TrEMBL record, chains A, B:
SUPFAM superfamilies: FAD-binding/transporter-associated domain-like, FAD-linked oxidases, C-terminal domain. Residues 40-219 form the FAD-binding PCMH-type domain. It comes from the Bacteria. Pfam families: FAD-oxidase_C, FAD_binding_4. Gene3D superfamilies: 3.30.465.10, 3.30.70.2740, Vanillyl-alcohol Oxidase, Chain A, domain 4. InterPro entries: FAD-bd_oxidored_4_C, FAD-bd_PCMH, FAD-bd_PCMH-like_sf, FAD-bd_PCMH_sub2, FAD-linked_Oxase-like_C, FAD-linked_OxidoTrans_Type4, Oxid_FAD_bind_N, Vanillyl_alc_oxidase_C-sub2. Its cofactor is FAD. Keywords: FAD, Flavoprotein, Oxidoreductase. The keyword Flavoprotein applies. This is FAD-binding oxidoreductase.
Length: 459, 459
């Protein structure tokens, strides 16, 4: 340990309980990165786990005084390296601040600390007849603070929108340790610039979220699903367009391509027919879901579905959705390593996105499976490769970039819900251009003049 | 005209058609202010009405070169003075940029210029089976650009949210004339800080919105309404809490207090019984609105409603809602002038807000009618006074401030949907505190280093 670290540890320990300051090298190494592939991570000087707002303020005051970078973390389930440590940094893990402070059925809000796990909040509000929609696939592990930092989405977004739409107000500890409250606990409010929304998706680069007021919905009826099999992705995409154009509001509208179907079949013997090129899953949580499914089933048939299988009950629905839930695990099994892209295009361009991705897979001689939040046009092309094979790894990385380029060409965005982190920094600049980057840097400078908050992320 | 103005006019005219540069004093005077009471307005040097993005860029480059303030305007239906001119400014009216550029039923978006009138957009998208929810009461006149600038709301918000939730992306001309694109035309996207949302509600202080990508919903069934009469506001508020706690999702949930009911009765002979202290209006645009109304009617009765009148059809619903639509006009007729407040509280505190407002009216010897977007907790206490009476005017202004103080005490915000402008500048600082104001000023400085964009508004 060098002298700088000793001073840092001494100063931190001045305002933190002993068990909140972790310096064991193995522990620190396990907190060095999130779940992204191809993202460098440095070695932290210390991992701190505060339990109170005051402790977070102490940490940030110390970091400012000593000019030490701070990397905030939730459960590190992110997929863009936004939570990766930099050398000599303080890793600020919020997982011990995990209290649900309030649930109000009349005001339809919850007030939570950032370390609350998404699923824990979902279950707690369910007990009050309420619903917190955002459901990233890591929902059993990921934290609300992480969801806010990365602006995460999930399967529900096609009907219920993303995390951003559920954050009403925040308490934030700024880089210099001052506490700022943004937003409100009311249903509406327009007092000044929307700083709350500015923090959502800011990946810990503007301040540390220590408390959030979240909007809740009434719990909807359990959803009922159908699966529709198609002989081509073009036919499946035509069905998606017809469903959305027809004014339907599914609670889930997911697509799996042939590669993904095959991977799931290989792993779990789901018995999907080999001729299936695309599987569409639709669900409704309306008052009469069977009627909605019947209408959507007809649109699928009219678009050329080879088979349409509506579930009769909730248990059958869950079985149908199981194939989608297994997709990433199944694709991981193909080659050992996956790189998950997150390109979102206008849903009218979904067919072009899928065609283009198939061409890119062929060009690079790679297996790329696509599952998509199809109703949102949000695709997750997943490159399967052997990380021990340098040439295949290089091709994986190149194809990944080409997929983002294709997304931009089609009027889309490089990230629908996973964020920028370190993985997509160069691509952020391409998407938003030099003027946008200049303004973003200006905002960063306002909140973090010393540049100590999660440096090297975003831009 | 002084020399400075001559130079300004010459430079502006260099890049604008002659009919886009207005200097007639009467015309300029009519463009000097919006519809807010008690807000000073200066005398503009010129009113410009560009028709293209390039013309807006020319105007901003000229303003930057000559350091002349620019006040952007839509239809000037705002209620906080945000569109009021300052002395010697360029009034930049966007009303001639009024084209709907695209409507896509598959992508559920519209792309519009800022001068499109809200009602024109609503009708245009209706023809495609789509719905643009935000419906401020000025919807037949107000523009989308103005709606974005002030983050306006309306009657629909209890179910459909506010303008902010429908703005996906923007083209913005910055203070120095550069063009910046924010956001996206996809359903989801998290690439960098949310600059789109930062512009919504920024009251023209960060840049000039010249194009917007708006999200649309499928057109819902026509709504069916009921009216419930209560002998006390407390009982009406209890019903509101029960309705929301019960998981109902009305498309409208409005409250009128006794003063408002009396004003409407006096003006339009609606024949509401004199004993009615509060009138609650609820509507549903669901698949089975009659069933929803029956359930809500029972909750009203359980809370002590003296009468519950459900409409049988759309025409009857419109008749019931007529009373609410006439409220402001009727309150204006009471004393000749009104001052409309816009305090939003957690809906669980609505009864306290109404009680407190009644106490404030009594304390100042004033008539204050309240109509409220009750489902959102968004109240519009409307102070009726004679503007020719200096003492009554002073009391009106003092009561107005006291109502905002009450809103903050109850955990609310000083503005639910009307914005800050010049009317509530001091109160913005009280609501968000010095750290928040400092950060807001920093953001302003980033976008508008010379301070020429709508100076003197917000903070």
């Amino acid at each position: 340990m060098n002298g700088g670290s000793e001073v840092l540890l001494a100063r931190l320990s001045d305002g933190l309980p002993a068990d909140a300051v972790l310096t064991d090298p193995d522990v620190m190494s396990s907190y060095a990165h999130d779940m992204a592939s191809f993202c460098d991570a440095g070695a932290p000087a210390v991992v701190v786990m505060p339990r109170t707002v005051e402790e977070v303020q102490h940490i940030m005051r110390t970091a400012t005084a000593l000019r030490v970078p701070v990397v905030p973390q939730g459960a590190r389930t992110g997929l863009s390296g936004a939570a990766n440590a930099s050398d000599g940094c303080i890793v600020l893990s919020l997982i011990k601040m995990d209290r649900i402070l309030e649930i109000s059925p009349v005001d339809r809000i919850a007030v939570v600390e950032p370390g609350v796990v998404n699923a824990a909040l979902s279950r707690a509000v369910n007990e009050h007849g309420l619903y917190y929609p955002p459901d990233p696939s890591s929902w059993e592990e990921c934290t609300i603070g992480g969801n806010i930092g990365t602006a995460s989405g999930g399967l529900c977004c096609v009907k219920y929108g993303v995390t951003a739409e559920y954050v009403l107000g925040l308490d934030v500890v700024l880089a210099d340790g001052r506490l700022m409250t943004t937003g409100r606990r009311t249903a509406k409010g327009v007092a000044g610039y929307d700083l709350t929304r500015l923090f959502v998706g800011s990946e810990g680069s503007l301040g540390i979220v220590v408390r959030a007021v979240l909007a809740l919905k009434p719990e909807p009826p359990a959803q009922l699903a159908l699966a529709a099999e198609f002989g081509s992705t073009a036919a499946a995409c035509e069905a998606i367009c017809k469903i959305m154009e027809g004014g339907h509001v599914p609670s889930l509208l997911e697509l799996m391509d042939r590669t993904t179907i095959k991977a799931v079949n290989d792993m779990a013997q789901m018995g999907l027919p080999d001729s299936t090129e695309a599987l569409l899953l639709a669900a409704f949580d309306t008052a009469d879901p069977a009627a909605d499914l019947a209408a959507v089933g007809e649109l699928c048939a009219a678009s050329g579905a080879t088979d349409v299988v509506p579930a009769d009950d909730h248990a059958e629905s869950e079985l149908l959705l199981q194939a989608r839930r297994l997709s990433l695990t199944a694709l991981e099994a193909v080659k050992g390593t996956t790189m998950i892209d997150d390109v979102c295009v206008p849903r009218s361009r979904l067919a072009d996105m899928l065609d283009g991705t198939a061409r890119i897979a062929e060009k690079y001689g790679l297996t790329i499976g696509v599952c998509a939040h199809a109703g949102d046009g949000n695709t997750h092309p997943t490159v399967c490769f052997d990380a021990q094979d340098p040439d295949e790894s290089r091709r994986a990385r190149e194809s990944f970039d080409e997929i983002m380029g294709l997304g931009l060409e089609l009027g889309g965005t490089i990230t629908g819900e996973h964020g920028v982190g370190v993985l997509k920094k160069e691509w952020l600049a391409r998407e938003i251009g030099p003027v946008g980057i200049e303004m973003q840097r200006g905002i960063k400078q306002t909140f973090d003049p010393l540049g100590i908050l999660n440096p090297g992320k975003l831009f």
